[in-house]
Amino acid sequence: MRSPDRTWSSEPCAQVRILLRALAAGAPSEALRPARRRARQLLEVEDLLTQVTELPPAATSAAGARAVEQARARFRTLPRSTPAAQRQGRDLAELARRELDLGSGALGDVAALVEQNFAVDVALSPLGTDADGLCVHCGPSALILASSDFPDGHLRFTLAHELGHHLLNDPAEIIEETTRDMFADTVREQRANAFAGHFLMPERGIRSVLAWLGEQPGQVSDRSAVALMGHFGVSMAALVYQLNIIGILTYDVGQAMRGRGVRSLVSQHRDVAPSGAATAVGSVRRAPERLTRRALAAARQQLLGLSAVASLLERDDDEQLWDEIMADYQQPPPSASILL
User: Fold this and answer.
1) According to the model, what pLDDT value does residue 11 have?
2) Residues 6 or more apart in contact with residue 193 via CB below 8 angstroms
3) pLDDT of 8-49, one tens digit each?
4) Interval 186-212 mean pLDDT
5) Three-class DSSP category at 76
6) For the packed helices 222-232 and 236-245, what is the interaxial angle rounded to 10 degrees?
7) 110 vs 87: CA distance, rounded Å
8) Residue 2 — very low, low, confident or very high, per pLDDT cuts 50/70/90?
9) In what order do the strands lie in the sheet with 133-138?
10) Where are the domains of the chain?
């Protein structure tokens, strides 16, 4: 039996209400409207779950809390130049990796890593390629949303970039990004890009992989570039940006490499590109794990209507979804305190 949809009239929590009001103001461009609509959907479901199930707020890990505390103490002053912005971004990435004990190797599931450690909900959705994503944050409430219609490596950089904005407590409640916005010539964006580059591709890790590939210092062949993209799960643009920043490639050499085309390079060196991160487009749908887990439990207990679950998961509101929700659910036994 499907649970009935329910209407709740109580006020949403203060932070979510602020974010919903800001999102309702309208996107500054047509390209950003799909991301705003999806962000509103997610925040509305969060509010409903808070009312229905007393959903607890997202929590940081102990290591994540230390990283956030140090970041906001050390980097509260906005840098005044590009070099200073890049230094701050690098220092923040090294701080985060150190506190999370990540070493200098490649990261796995970036969305899960962010959720596990930084009290940030992360969602992926096929939103097209006009906009990369957004970060909405206010007090303890934070959501990062990225379009999965880009190659996986591009998507991972977007997530790391938006995390940088959040960790640095950049003041806008809604930080919306197209690729042009992300690489704008401002110290806030330069700092977030530097963080993303060093968080995903630490210099020590890059040099270690290049040494393993037999490259001479200061040289990166096309084959090695493809291997680096596959190893760190990044796009060609992100890799070339990082290699420029750490002084391994000059700007002109990097642009010439990009000019040869990422698909062409990957097709020539498939043996070192098993992940396909530079070219594979997954168009996946991922709702925040915290909300998904609570929504499924609430639906099974008939506390939440199927339409809310369908909205959260971007699924059709139909019997197939209900059957999947209930597939592994075992009804709890009656309470022993109930007199029969």
Assistant:
1) 42
2) 89, 161, 164, 182, 183, 241
3) 333 446 677 667 777 777 667 788 888 989 999 999 999 899
4) 96
5) coil
6) 100
7) 22
8) very low
9) 121-125, 141-147, 133-138, 174-177
10) 14-56+287-326, 204-272
Average pLDDT over the chain, rounded to an integer: 87
Single-letter amino acid, residue 72? R
Tokens of 133: 């994503």
Question: Which of these, 14, 58, 51, lies nearest to 288 by C-alpha position?
Answer: 58
Q: How far apart are CA 224 and CA 219, in angstroms?
A: 9
- Residue 282 in this model has a pLDDT that exceeds 90: yes
In angstroms, the CA 237 to CA 254 distance is 9
Ordered alpha helix ranges (H), the chain:
14-24, 33-53, 62-74, 82-99, 110-118, 152-167, 179-182, 187-200, 203-212, 222-232, 236-245, 251-259, 262-268, 289-300, 306-313, 319-326
The Cβ of residue 250 has, within 10 Å, a number of other Cβ atoms equal to 12
Residue with tokens 């957004």: 134
